[in-house]
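Case study B.
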Amino acid sequence: MTKMITLIIDGIQVTVPEGTNIVDAAKKAGIDIPVFCYHPKMHPVGMCRMCLVEVGRPVIDRATGQFVRNEDGSLKIQFNPKLETGCTTPVSEGMVVINTSDKVKRGRKDILEFLLTSHPLDCPICDKGGECPLQNLTMAHGPGTSRFLFDEKKHLLKHTPLGELIYLDQERCIQCGRCVRFQDELVDDPVIGFSQRGRSLQIVTFSEPGFDSIFSGNTTDICPVGALTTADFRFGARPWELNAAASICQQCPVGCNLTLNVRREAVASGKVVIKRVMPRQNEWVNEIWICDKGRFGYHYTESIERLTQPLLRKGGELSPVSWEEALEVVIERLRQAGENLLSVAGGRLSNEDFFNLRKLTEGIGGKTALYTQMGGGDLVALAGMPQGSNLGELGKGDAILVIASDLHQEAPIWWLRVKQAAERGATLIVALPRPNRLDKFAQHILRYRYRDESGLILAMINALSAKRPELPQKVNALWRDAEVQAAAKAFAEAQNAVIFFGSEGVGLQTSQALAQACTNLLSVTNHLGRPNNGLIPVWQRPNDQGAWELGWRPLPNLGEEMGKAGALYLVACDPAADDPALSLTPDFLVVQDLFLTATAKLAHVVLPALPFTEREGSLVNGERRAQRYYPAVPARPGPRPDFAISGQLGKMLGIDLEDRIASKVMMRIAAEVPAFAGITYSALAQAPEQWPIIGRADLYYGGTTYENKQGIGVQLPNGIQRGEKLTLTWPSLAAGTPDEEGTLAVPITRLYDGGSTLLPSRLLDQRRVRTVIWMHPAQASANAIQEGDLVHLQIGEASAMATALLDEQVPEGVILAPRSTGIPLHEPHLVQLKVVERS
Amino acid sequence: MKRSYLLLRHRDIPDLNDLAVYRQHGGFEAFRKAVTTLQPHEVVEIVKASGLRGRGGAGFPTGMKWSFIDNKNWPHYVVANADESEPGTFKDREIMEGNPFQFLEGLMIASYAVQANVAYIYLRGEFWQLAHQLDRRIQQLHSAGLLGERLFGTEYSLRIYTHLGAGAYICGEETALLESLEGKLGQPRLRPPFPPAVGLFGKPTIVNNVETLANVPLIIERGAEWYRSFGTEKSPGVKIFCLSGRVNRPGNYELPLGTTFRELIFEHGKGIPDSKQIKAIMAAGASSALIVADERALDTPMDYESVPALGAQLGSASIIVIDETVSMDWLIRKTIHFFQHESCGKCTPCREGTYWMKHIIDRIHRGEASQNDVELLYDVASQMRGKCLCALGEFSIEAVLSALERFPKDFAARVAQQEPAL
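Model:
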């Protein structure tokens, strides 16, 4: 039970938990104490001196230990003759804080006058104008005229790139230190810092490339002046000209809440365009942060390469046609295909899209397949994060296991949440064959060999439970390992435990096995069915979980299935590009996507779809939270939402589908799919008040992150919560490693990839991963490969060329290849290497 | 009256900075006594009883500071503050050059008292030669079995490391010193918590000035009562007064606390050159308010209680004498420049205020200012008062405000002159 303290601020009585500082306590009472350096998500430093207030404390008689009272019985209050900084002062019982006296007002005026002496009068050209705490506080508290001589102003560097993403104006900087502390304290990337001292104190970057942090954009939100700006938005627009649309990021399964700022502009021929992506507060998902991929990765939605018209193959060539003509052809061929129809869809689609497409396909008699190399979503639907969970609550006494995933590159905000949970005392167990950014915060680091993932989890179970089914010898070796036993024990003893499982080192079957093993571990350690206990999948796409919840399943041997199908309906996936060795020659191929992909070029009909920015929809994130997104810009004429297309097709075929209004599709989902019972678009739009109160209206206390008025989403109850039974089945492990010819190549995810939804963001080009392979120096010399050599990789029937890079952190005996760079490697596979060109 | 030196004993005993000589004169007997016959808390009690107060400028009772160390958090550290950077202060340097072993012995006794096994000496960067000498001397102590493991056959072990700063006055502030020692930017921390609770690397730490520590061996050797026979009741002991400025004999003078300004300046310092009139006294180096040097001031005893009656602090007792040839605008231009240069920049009022004051005083001094500017200077300094994060900012305005209040004629004259000063 946290002790509560009662104090009086400006005559208002406030009761807050012990340890709260005066600024936060005042906030709870609706009183704004102005701040610059203080941020509710960081430790206070008391540097800017803006929050100086008068503080009085009850006098305690030294002899008796009792409060001294006045004649009228009230507590005798002794005021500190010096003003105190509210942010660094914790509240105490009976404290009296005065925020409105002349002394305090003069203090604020003085501090503002000091800040404005060398602060340049850049407002007319500064991006921050209009959402600038310094502007607002000066209007509220500051002097109207300057007594400082312009000639004596300190001059420092202006519009200097810290890296190519973030620009710094050293003159505007008020040395509050928020950016430096954010990078150091919150995201463990201390790549910027202060240099010099006194009035020459300035921000510099230490890294190459400059400001090398995947969270760098957040510093531009929390900077209280226009010192830090993004290259993406600089000189883009005035904040008051922007409209705000609530959206959900679609780059990874975290599902960060976004606000897209849009504006109609002449330069874009009168179109409404997205000017920038900002975070939207959701303390259950991303708090107030987003990673740079989400912030800078929206440009594909505005690409001129986007499909705008349906295409029909006539005389060997794809020609633009009307929707009527295209749909007629599709209807005809789908009807013909009947049970020979295979619909394959990728995880970019919304819940409504998946629902309608499945209904359509099965209504015709066909089959569906989820386009993914990662399994286990059915287990997540059953044993994933239950309703009422929040990663932000995990701490001392809880445990987190992360296996087969480099969270920092695959789901940055989860990396951040896990790191923070570990810092709050949660036991972190990191299982990955190579060093990664979570190791530093882990109590247990388990280095296993690629392909031993499930074996490791089973070994942990064996270390704990008496139930030991017959398992291969290598598992026995693992469970005798002291480190594994210690980790297993820590996991079992935790009050609450979650497991993140990913796709590094596993393919479809092996990830399903891994998910099963993890579920078993949760089960035998009694970590199921309660909030903050469950399985979290690190999918490669934003709505894979939604797909699984809505009955979509991957097919083993998808390539074969696609080869056998009479008609193929491919939506939001590009198998031809992913797998060049694949032969796609069905009788009828219809492709529905945003761009003319390699697969689309092979199609008989191409149907243009809308990106998420131009339509409504909902997703289910990896923590099983259903969230809705709203259209940000008017839909480009031509393309239609995916669910509308399949809805229309359905209607034309006599299948009862909703084809116009997304919320109505959700109503049907809610009626049919138990997990979604009670979910409506209204429910998804519920937005309770959140703490800390970030808000934009009150002097940007927490930065320019948008407050969330459009909904925090609803976490779906998992199967166990709904009464479904979990049966423990033991995944079968490969008996041993067969004799192998070649080297094992393992695909890994890098945040800035070359995928079609990120490539159009040219801003990220310098940080984008190149077509390379990484190998340990010993591995390289065994293959006579030198750093920088161009190497030919034979991957089964497919091949690729990549530059070889040597890295001691790569486990020996494997090579690592990044996804989405054109190397057709989607699960671990033996490859043959040959040097083609020396460096 | 010739009294033997207690701290500057090398002025009595040649080659006292040689370990053999130091030991011949009873050196390290106090340390042996402490480690072999006294409990750590007993050592603390003796120092407490002696009334010794910090000699770095704050005057905080040393024994009391030692008793605040958190005994629930380990390990403990002791750090000797040898960052001597206050303008007009040069006492610690003489101690470390002439009588280093007494200082080291004091540091070692302090470490034993708070049960620290590691001690650091933080020296200002410009003292690199001193640091090398100290390193050699520390090595000698190791060879002599006075530092290292299991001293005198007990369980107590102690190592001392020297560490150089890099030219920042702010690193004399104890928490900024700790930040610098930890390899971080030398900026003061928030207090509370104070170093005895959370200090070096987050552990309980005692930071003491060099001169303070040099007093300790004598107190242990001869007792608290003996120490109290010098000085005054509330400010016992002897102090090294650093006399400088417009005097005939500047230098370090070891005298009991309570000695008057008059005695120091006119008897020991042999008065003002060229028979000029004394005008003002800065008692705490550049961090002082200007004391009007009237008869009452000159007869005031130099101790921590009496000086405040003159509207100033004794501080580190770096007595700078100002005579009628010095114009106050010239003087505070020096102090303002100093503080502006040394401001760490962490807090707004000091960072911006010292910069602003510098420009105003430069203009006044160049003869390009009006009386409004003089009032503005006063305003800016007043605006800084009570708002700064640490003592640097707070004390940087003392000279400015006191000069403007107590010597307004100097500024009026400068403004009226409208020509550059000498």
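The two ends of chain B are 41 Å apart (CA to CA). The remaining cases will be described in the next quarterly update.
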